[in-house]
Specification:
With 351 residues, the protein is α+β, with helices and mostly antiparallel strands. It has a single domain, classed as 3-Layer(aba) Sandwich (Beta-lactamase), CATH 3.40.710.10. Helix content is 32%, strand content 17%. A six-stranded antiparallel sheet has the order 2-1-13-12-11-10, with helices on both faces. Strands 5-9-6 form a three-stranded antiparallel sheet. A two-stranded antiparallel ribbon has the order 3-4. A hairpin with a 4-residue loop joins strand 12 and strand 13. It is globular and about 70 Å long. The chain starts with a helix and ends in a 5-residue tail after the last helix.
């Protein structure tokens, strides 16, 4: 019996390895056939039923030194950072330090009159009516550092785009306010809070909120294309993203993060439900977009000068795909969607 069981386990292992090798070949072929004007450089990981079924790296992390991207390479994830801000708010709610239906004026005492009906929930779901910033709205320019208070001043006195709760409009400004609330309620700096309450407990040792001038080991350089030529990305101070972007991480750490969101632990069951539920009038949860057709999927895209990212969860199929790139026009969404279609359609619902 022991010999039969050993043989069965060996057969299953060999079959799984063959499937993964076939999937790896398919991914290589897909990337090779991308248009030369839209190449992919970065890392891809897919996990199903808690097991990694694909992990690939493409292109260079640092062009000047011919350093390739590897599983250890760190990437900026731009607006994927919003899910961490949302999680921090939900942690504080689970601890009884705030409620998502609290008016923001309860914490931000300098809130103008037209913010009185805005709640934390409105900020989380992009339904507050607070307008987004453009480059012209930063009085010191985008190369200077801003404190959270200074960020809020860049939009505090502008009229609302609509009455709170009546429409949906994606902004960074709402998440600036959420970062301010995290600091005010916790007594910790935004980056320190994430490190102490999310990254360290989850053993996400290769993640952090990046100060602009910090030296980060294994950090990819960010690239863009101008008039057909590859160049370094435009400079901007990372403080302009506090709460809305600015986090760096690896595909491996994103896997750890998503595993923590699969069941209550880091967050309560109620908080996870709030995070992954679309809140009308938009299709946005807390830091995630939520679609229900043709399949339920929970996803977010991020883009900054030099970097692009896409992350998607298919909860019914227990599938996660993460695509991180260090070139801002890399087709991260297309790569993720093609891989999902291959796994869920071409290769069947179950890998």
């Amino acid at each position: 019996m022991k010999r039969i069981l050993t043989s069965l386990l060996l057969l299953l292992s060999t079959s799984a390895h063959a499937q993964e090798s076939k999937l790896s070949d398919w991914m290589d072929n897909y990337v090779d056939q991308l248009p030369p004007a839209k190449p992919f450089r970065g890392n891809i990981v897919a996990a199903q039923n808690g097991r990694v079924i694909l992990e690939k790296s493409y292109g260079l992390a640092v062009e000047e030194w011919n350093i390739p991207n590897t599983s250890r390479t760190k990437f900026e994830i731009a607006s994927l950072s919003k899910q961490f801000t949302a999680a921090a708010i939900l942690e504080l709610a689970d601890a009884g330090k705030l409620r998502v239906d609290d008016p923001i004026g309860k914490f931000y005492k300098d809130a103008p009159r037209n913010w009185q009906e805005i709640t934390i929930q409105h900020l989380l779901t992009h339904t507050s009516g607070i307008p987004n910033n453009e480059i012209k709205d930063f009085p010191k320019g985008i190369a200077a550092a801003y404190t959270p208070d200074e960020l809020i001043l860049t939009f505090r006195n502008r009229p609302l785009a609509f009455a709170p709760g009546t429409k949906w409009a994606y902004t960074n400004t709402e998440y600036y306010l959420l970062a301010w609330i995290i600091e005010h309620v916790s007594g910790e700096k935004y980056g320190a809070y994430l490190a102490g309450h999310i990254f360290t407990p989850l053993k996400m040792t290769r993640s952090g909120f990046r100060p602009t001038l910090a030296i980060i080991p294994d950090m990819a350089e960010g690239y863009t294309v101008e008039e057909g030529q590859l160049r370094h990305r435009d400079y901007f101070d990372r403080s302009l993203e506090t709460g809305a972007g600015g986090i760096y991480t690896t595909t491996g750490d994103v896997l750890l993060w998503n595993r923590a969101l699969d069941s209550p632990g880091l967050l309560s069951a109620r908080s996870l439900d709030l995070m992954f539920t679309a809140h009308p009038p938009g299709n946005y949860g807390y830091g995630w977009f939520v679609d229900t057709a043709p399949r339920r999927r929970i996803y977010h895209e991020g883009g900054d000068p030099g970097f692009a990212a896409f992350e998607v969860r298919y909860p019914d199929q227990h599938l996660l795909i993460v695509v991180l790139a260090n070139q801002d026009d890399s087709p991260v969404r297309d790569v993720a969607n093609a891989l999902a279609d291959h796994l869920l359609n071409d290769a069947g619902e179950k890998h």
